[in-house]
Prior knowledge:
Elements: E1 2-4, H1 20-35, E2 42-45, H2 49-62, E3 69-71, H3 80-85, H4 98-114, H5 125-140, E4 147-151, H6 153-163, H7 167-175, E5 183-184, E6 186-189, E7 192-195
Amino acid sequence: LLVRHGQASWDGEDYDVLSETGHRQGELLGAALAERGIKPDVVVSGGMRRHRETVENVVAGARLGSVSVDVDPGWDEYDHVSMLAQVPTTFVGEKPTPAEFQAWMEQATDRWIRGEHAEDYHEPFAAFTGRVEAAVQRAVGGSQGTTLVVTSGGPISWVTSSLLGGGAALWSRLNVVCVNTGVTKLVTGRRGVTMVS
């Protein structure tokens, strides 16, 4: 189960901290999993604070007690700040409006995924996707039972896109619609890894 972290503090000084809503989302997801009888055998967290805080809230909401959590930075989000730094800003005020920010982010993302300027990034798009694919293999390799991975929208969107054969174009479309504490279910079997929901 791939879970996107709860709502982060978008307008706060540190985006990597969950908002009050984000904490509650994690608790509600944990309770929903428990109601369905889903108890993970393995819990994996990306290395970011918002991932850890979401895991803590899911565990509390599911009343799992003391749980061992494997931290795997392969599930970390891409660095959107460094991406944005590569594209000049065009907004007028001190802070962009939501529409201005969205346009800026789309330009920055497009430049990043094209790979024409890979040397401008500490993690080019190809390195990001390779890192996520390696994290998937670690998560499914030899694991029996249910693994719960708390990560971010970018990695979840890449896993989904690559399993559907959509590549970077589909990733761009999915990445902007991956919701907080949404769950993507994968299964492993003789066909390898398959997305089921």
